[in-house]
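Hello,

I think I submitted the N6-Methyladenosine 5'-triphosphate job twice by accident. Can you confirm which output corresponds to this input? Input:
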Amino acid sequence: MSTIPANESTIEWKNWNAEIPATLMFVVQDGKILLIEKLTGIGQGKINGPGGKIDPGENALQAIVRECQEELHITPHSPVKMGELHFAMSDIPDIHCHVFMSNTFDGEPTSTREANPLWTALDAIPYDKMWEDDRHWLPQMLDGQLFNGRFEFDGEKVVWMEVCFGDSAKALWIENA
Ligand SMILES: CNc1ncnc2c1ncn2[C@@H]1O[C@H](COP(=O)(O)OP(=O)(O)OP(=O)(O)O)[C@@H](O)[C@H]1O
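Support: Only one job matched these inputs. Its output is below.
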């Protein structure tokens, strides 16, 4: 488990509930990861995986497939859930995010109103252009580890975090999609 800094979180995580359920997808193929430049919504201008909010009546798996279709015109095959992320934000609603991986997909990644596709070498992921939390779980996820992350943000800065990996992380998931 990794934590920063040593101080306590101001969040009472036991009773914490995010307003926004969301998803992320990381497609990995031939030593490359399919990232996006996000053109709209939360994190506009950042590099991230495709993803977005879970609509009412959807589960996380249905939502991530739909978001990949909408944002990049691709349909990932057999998404595997790798982690959950809990973001307590200071200036936007709190987010609970389900993170998936896939190795194959139908379609050709295509620029849309919401995103530009960016095939990126696995050893050149631009963490400086991504949300600050990503560097604390994406490398381990790409090594095949399940994870659970709690992050407290002040604006775009992480002020507290706790990230667990492996089977003990999965035991912390709120939902097993
Ligand atoms: C704070 N640290 C963070 N680190 C990594 N990823 C983060 C994130 N905070 C939000 N995200 C992701 O950003 C997307 C927002 O989704 P967002 O574009 O707002 O939703 P959606 O595509 O449904 O758009 P609409 O607002 O309905 O148009 C969604 O994948 C969500 O998981």
